[in-house]
């Protein structure tokens, strides 16, 4: 079984990717149809997740309430997920991500976010320690109504806003809504203006917005030492 359609990434030119406005992103499916179906049928159970609610964020940005699961080696996630993560750790995927994001010796973090009704993702740029991220969405047309929300929004600040602030959606010049339903993904380059968000979700109580995220970090000794000093444990692959 192959989960990644790696040719989708190989066919994406670096110049083409970097030319995307307001910042480089690629919102296309990069999973095989069977791979997506197998992963969707075998999502990690909510019982494995930590509840992250009301957590303070940088510069007074509103909390991103959700259930979160950080992948660690030997974690008992369903077999398709073990196989998929092994593919993500392959030289083939890492090489394409390094090429597109301009990264050298990239390291990955993997985690799942399940977001309940009433929660949102306030406008933010990801941490400066990151090269970017690759989001894989796992709500099918059969179990999710687009009217409930959940789409990632790429926000255009016109280069005006300081990433270390907490702007409202109304302050942006343009909002681009990603395709986040079915077999879709979004690769985003991190910049000081790569703002993104998710509007408040309005779904039934028994539904969750589900996304799997590959965070792309540099192999940087400074951050590793800092994490160790503050007692933060991050698995890198």
What does this protein look like?
The chain has one domain (6-229): Sandwich (Jelly Rolls). Helices cover 21% and strands 23% of the residues. It is built from 6 helices and 11 strands. The chain has helices spanning 6-10, 14-18, 33-41, 79-88, 91-101, 221-229, and strands at residues 25-26, 50-52, 66-70, 107-115, 121-124, 132-137, 153-156, 174-177, 185-189, 195-198, 209-217. The strands form 2 sheets. A 7-stranded antiparallel beta sheet has the order 1-9-6-11-4-3-2. The radius of gyration is 17 Å and the shape is globular.
Mean pLDDT: 93
The description of the largest β-sheet is: 7 strands, antiparallel
CATH superfamily: q2cbj1_9rhob like domain
Q: What class would the helix/strand composition place it in?
A: alpha+beta
- Would you list the SSEs in sequence order as H and E? HHEHEEHHEEEEEEEEH
**Proportion of beta-strand residues:** 15-25%
Number of distinct beta strands: 11
Estimated radius of gyration: 17 Å
State the CATH architecture: Sandwich
Strand order of the largest sheet: 1-9-6-11-4-3-2
Named CATH topology: Jelly Rolls
Helix amount, in percent?
10-25%
N- to C-terminal separation? 22 Å
């Amino acid at each position: 079984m192959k989960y990644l359609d790696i040719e989708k990434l190989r066919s994406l030119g670096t110049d083409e990717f970097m030319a995307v406005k307001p910042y480089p992103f690629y919102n296309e499916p990069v999973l095989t149809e069977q791979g997506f179906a197998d992963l969707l049928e075998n999502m990690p159970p909510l019982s494995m997740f930590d509840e992250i609610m009301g957590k303070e964020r940088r510069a007074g940005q509103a909390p991103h309430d959700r259930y979160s699961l950080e992948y660690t080696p030997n974690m008992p996630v369903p077999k398709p997920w073990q196989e998929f993560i092994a593919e993500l750790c392959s030289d083939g995927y890492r090489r394409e991500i390094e090429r597109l994001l301009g990264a050298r010796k990239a390291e990955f973090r993997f985690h799942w976010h399940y977001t309940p009704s009433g929660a949102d993702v306030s406008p933010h740029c990801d941490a400066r320690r990151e090269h970017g991220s690759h989001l894989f969405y796992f709500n099918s047309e059969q179990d999710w109504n687009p009217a409930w929300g959940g789409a990632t929004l790429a926000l255009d600040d016109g280069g005006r806003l300081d990433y270390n602030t907490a702007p409202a959606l109304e302050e942006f010049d343009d909002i681009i809504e990603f395709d986040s339903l079915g077999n879709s993904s979004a690769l985003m380059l991190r910049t000081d203006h790569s703002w993104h968000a998710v509007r408040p979700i309005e779904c039934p109580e028994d539904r969750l917005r589900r996304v799997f995220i590959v965070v792309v970090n540099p192999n940087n000794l400074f951050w590793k030492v800092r994490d160790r000093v503050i007692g933060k444990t991050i698995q890198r692959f």
